[in-house]
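hi! just following up on the protien thing from before. the input was this:
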Amino acid sequence: MAIAYPHFIGSDKPIVVEPPLMASAAPPVILTQDELKKIAAYKAVEFVESGMVLGLGTGSTAKHAVSRIGELLQQGKLHNIVGIPTSKITHEQALSVGIPLSDLDAHPVLDLVIDGADEVDPFMNLVKGRGGSLLREKMVEGACKKFVVIVDESKLVKHLGGSGLAMPVEIVPFCWKFTAKRLELMFEEAGCVGKLRRFVGNGEPFVTDNGNYIVDLYFKRDIGDLRAASDAILRLAGVVEHGMFLDMATTLIVAGELGVTVKNKEVLGGRRKFHMNCLQNTEPSEASHFTQRVLDVAMQVCSLWDMIPVLIIVMFLGWFKWLSWAQFLVGFFLTLTPLIRFVAYYKFWTS
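and the predicted 3d structure came back as:
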């Protein structure tokens, strides 16, 4: 039995798993799936701060987050927000609620993206794109410091494709049957069936915002190594992008019958932050210069240490006149090379 939800209080403190939030006094009520999506979306908006550049997701869950951000802007609780929409539909919705918009050309690094997902596995890998916006979603969500995924508990699966629903692949219209057949054969062992997505009414092919088609792949069995599958799909000529979002989500918010659960992927978040720092700071820092100098000197010390036995052997043979003086001098100076290089690097390091 589902229960009523209290008002959620946001927190900036890092957490790994937040226990379900429950109302103690409210009588039990049954919440619809859309109400659960709205609860997850509102919880995600608590991560939004004034002055942020936000990626605005697409879909039945993300639309609630967009509406909430617009509401907070109108109330004056948020200001100086810039939104980067992931679809034409979201673009129109954001404008209607008063969110200023821009694009990745003007803002190549985003502070936060809030979006839904069609499937989430235990490692926070996602299937997205059943709404048809997977390419723009992946572009925007791959350029953010923090990616918050909002779902209801029906989207949790043991493995991607486990729901039996579609894993979309965006392809070019040219010879789409040829591409769809090759995708099927690629995952034949998983019982893959590929179907061109069409409009329900007239049966015409669904066309993405980028003018492409979508082939929906249905799997009867686990496809195995997700990274290998991702690479294989992207290497196929005619494929534009696929709907597997691997190691991209940093926070997962799940609304279920017992409340809201928040899970952070700490290690991945740190790596993404480091990656974003690299994008923002192309010039090497003083710390990186220092580290490189230390490594260079260490390499030269190791090289010198390795040459010590050779130097001893050359001197020993020369002392007993088992080498000619010419051979002795050549060997002696060759073994001194690491020492000379070490001195040079030491002077550079201390300069």
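Residues 286-350 form one domain.
The CA atoms of residues 293 and 350 lie 9 Å apart.
cheers
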